[in-house]
Amino acid sequence: MKKVAAADVVIFGGGIAGLWLLNRLRQAGLSVLLFESGSLGGGQTHKSQGIIHGGMKYALHGVLTNEARSISDMPAYWKKCLSGKGEIDLSAVPILSAYNYLWAPHKFTSRLTGFLASATLSSKVEALPREHYPTVFQNPGFKGEVFALDEVVIDVPVLVRELVKANQDAVFKIEPLCDEELKFDDQGNLLSATVYMSGKSVEVTAQQFVFTAGAGNEVIIKKLKSHEVAMQRRPLHMVLVKTPFDYPLYAHCLGLGSRPRITVTTHHAQDGSTIWYLGGLLAEDGVGRDSATQIQAARDELRALFPWLDFSAAEFATLMIDRAEPLQKGGLKPESSFTRIIKNMTIAWPTKLALAPKLAEDIMQQLQTNNISPQLFDVRELRSWPMPPLAKPIWEDLFCKNVA
Ligand SMILES: Cc1cc2nc3c(=O)[nH]c(=O)nc-3n(C[C@H](O)[C@H](O)[C@H](O)COP(=O)(O)OP(=O)(O)OC[C@H]3O[C@@H](n4cnc5c(N)ncnc54)[C@H](O)[C@@H]3O)c2cc1C
């Protein structure tokens, strides 16, 4: 006989989007099951730099864009959660840095300084006296300027662990979902999805199915053949540096254009070593380079930006990763999070870790409009199913291989 399970909402994908939503929906009294085909956080989420952007990265050319506006409330929202007073208690998640910094290797232009000091941004940006610069910039070799941005940087692996903690009975490992296992009615509603694991199968039904599977949303998009939703991938070639010194740095370096020349965050590996994780233009422009060439480009950039530091004993590794997002004209960056309901299916991308709470809020409002209320719950057949593992921090994985 076919084994069955049922919940009010079924989520596919255990990255930040699915896990945040799972917490919020369960708080609202709905029964929820989340299925993950890899490891929890192991998609884009663990590869993120953990910056809770407030939009400054998108205003570096001196103009407040729509993108900057849509994300500007996020730091305050997250800070409330991180202090234990928000919608989700994240008080156990370490804040790696209370500020993200913006530095220029030379003096800022007067136009940009004026913009940063303007009333619109005055609460979000602060010009710093030299004695408050991050330690690495206290060296006399540094001739530039530093601003502090009101954007916290958080420990993403612990964030994922905390979001899973209270929900272990609702999170299940599955083998990659196959579109043939999705059953639809004549109106195009999804009736059920059959999930598999280690030779077992269960047919799952729900009032609403939510796809927060990152790049894995492609399975449902292809199946639906709808014109309402399409996906794009924007690749990055990130660089990790095991540094021979311990300078914690969380900062964007101002380049000539509107995007940061390099973005640095700092993480500590289990063996105590200090890892600089490098993104920004280095990662965007490095997409066509192989790993060795990208490492050389990173070495050159670090030598140019930190001439007083010696990176010759540093170990380097690189990581190719696609950002999975709703398709934009010309492959541009989306301006905010995205959610679309098609029949009883929701397809969603946060587009940024920082926007996961906004995405969850939008989805909850859509569910309310669709009158999704507590009704279904039957998980008996899933009781013996395994939980997906928590993903390992990427530096733990990468410095065992791919080292130059
Ligand atoms: C290098 C990099 C740096 C970034 N830095 C930042 C930053 O500093 N700040 C910020 O705000 N944003 C940042 N981002 C963006 C942010 O990481 C992503 O927007 C966010 O993590 C996406 O979360 P998600 O849950 O949608 O997807 P993912 O984290 O990719 O999660 C999707 C999950 O679904 C699972 N899955 C796939 N297919 C299926 C299936 N069929 N069934 C079940 N499960 C499935 C995957 O295994 C995965 O675990 C960064 C992104 C990258 C790539």
Write structural notes for this entry.
The chain has 404 residues and is α+β, with helices and mostly antiparallel strands. The chain has a domain at 4-45 and 159-230 and 328-392: FAD/NAD(P)-binding domain (3-Layer(bba) Sandwich), CATH 3.50.50.60. 22% of the residues lie in helices and 27% in strands. The protein contains 10 helices and 19 strands. The strands form 3 sheets. Strands 1, 2, 8, 9, 10, 11, 17, 18 and 19 form a 9-stranded mixed beta sheet that branches. An 8-stranded mixed beta sheet has the order 5-6-4-13-14-15-12-16. It has a two-stranded antiparallel ribbon with strand order 3-7. Helix 1 crosses helix 9 (356-369). The mean pLDDT is 92. The structure holds flavin-adenine dinucleotide (FAD). Residues 12-18, 35-38, 42-45, 47-51, 53, 176-177, 212-214, 216, 219, 236, 238, 279, 321, 323, 349-354 line the site of flavin-adenine dinucleotide (FAD).
How is the topology of this model organized?
Blueprint: E1 4-12, H1 16-27, E2 32-36, H2 66-71, H3 74-82, E3 95-97, E4 100-104, H4 110-116, E5 125-127, E6 145-149, E7 153-154, H5 156-165, E8 171-173, E9 182-184, E10 190-197, E11 200-211, H6 218-224, E12 231-243, E13 251-253, E14 262-268, E15 274-279, H7 281-285, H8 291-305, E16 315-326, E17 338-342, E18 345-349, H9 356-369, E19 377-378, H10 394-398
Parallel strand pairs: 1-2, 1-11, 2-8, 4-13, 11-18
Antiparallel strand pairs: 1-19, 3-7, 4-6, 5-6, 9-10, 10-11, 12-15, 12-16, 13-14, 14-15, 17-18
Helix pairs in contact: 1-9
Bound molecules: flavin-adenine dinucleotide.
Flavin-adenine dinucleotide is lined by residues 12-18, 35-38, 42-45, 47-51, 53, 176-177, 212-214, 216, 219, 236, 238, 279, 321, 323, 349-354.
